[in-house]
């Protein structure tokens, strides 16, 4: 599974702003994937729906290359697993199933951390674009059929550390004001 828009924009930015020394490294890493990537770091993700709280152990695809390869060449996705693609900031998410060997449920997560759209049982190997139809904070890939089986629906709340808003840094004391009382 790829996010063509993100990868294309990143490559254009890198190639457009990179010096000659960067080009070979970018080109080497940008080759077409030919095998499944190793397991990525995992975190717990919960979807709270009318049918209950559903907990998944999902791999988190953070880098452009991890996001490009996604679930490609994998022969199974556990019913309680999947892959989360956090985009950092809400953006249009366009996915496809190139080199993906198993059906997936693709869940687009809106800026409000709620399920914004679901594409059930995306067809393996298809090049058809699967769109979030609006800004998505993240995209979640689950085993095909899981959302219907568990009753996961648009509007359900999604909870994961990778989706939490950044915590602002503590305020520093202003210059000229005492930070402690003196006797």
Plain-language structure description:
The chain is of the alpha+beta class. The chain has one domain (2-163): Protein of unknown function DUF192 (Jelly Rolls, Sandwich), CATH 2.60.120. It contains four helices and eight strands; from the N terminus they run E-H-H-E-E-H-E-E-E-E-H-E. It has helices at 4-17, 22-29, 64-69, 146-150, and strands spanning 2-3, 42-49, 52-60, 81-96, 104-109, 115-122, 130-143, 157-160. Strands 1, 2, 3, 4, 5, 6, 7 and 8 form an eight-stranded mixed beta sheet that branches. Helix 3 links the parallel strand 3 and strand 4 (81-96). The chain starts with a strand and ends in a 23-residue tail after the last strand. Mean pLDDT is 83; it is low at 2-28 and 178-182.
> Approximately how much beta-strand content do the residues carry?
35-45%
Mean pLDDT: 83
Given the structure, what is the number of helices? 4
Query: What order do the helices and strands follow?
Result: EHHEEHEEEEHE
Main sheet overview: 8 strands, mixed
Corresponding CATH superfamily: Protein of unknown function DUF192
Helix content, binned percent: 10-25%
Highest-level CATH class: Mainly Beta
Span from first to last CA? 65 Å
| Radius of gyration, CA atoms, in whole angstroms | 20 Å
Overall number of structural domains: 1
Q: Which word captures the global form?
A: globular
CATH topology group: Jelly Rolls
> Based on helices, strands and strand pairing, what is the structural class?
alpha+beta
The CATH architecture is: Sandwich
Low-pLDDT runs: 2-28, 178-182
Number of strands: 8
């Amino acid at each position: 599974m790829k996010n063509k828009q993100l990868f294309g924009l990143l490559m254009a930015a890198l190639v457009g702003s990179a010096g000659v020394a960067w080009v070979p490294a970018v080109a080497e890493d940008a080759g077409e994937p030919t095998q499944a990537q190793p397991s990525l770091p995992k975190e717990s993700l919960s979807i709270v729906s009318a049918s209950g709280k559903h907990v998944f152990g999902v791999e988190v695809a953070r880098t452009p290359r991890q996001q490009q390869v996604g679930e490609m060449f994998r022969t199974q996705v556990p019913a309680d697993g999947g892959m989360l693609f956090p985009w950092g900031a809400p953006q249009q998410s366009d996915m496809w199933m190139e080199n993906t060997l198993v059906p997936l449920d693709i869940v687009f997560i809106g800026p409000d951390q709620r399920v914004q759209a679901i594409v059930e049982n995306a067809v393996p190997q298809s090049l058809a674009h699967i769109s979030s139809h609006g800004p998505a904070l993240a995209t979640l890939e689950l085993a095909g059929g899981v959302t219907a089986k568990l009753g996961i629906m648009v509007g359900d709340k999604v909870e994961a550390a990778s989706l939490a808003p950044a915590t602002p840094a503590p305020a520093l004391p202003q210059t000229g004001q005492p930070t402690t009382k003196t006797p």
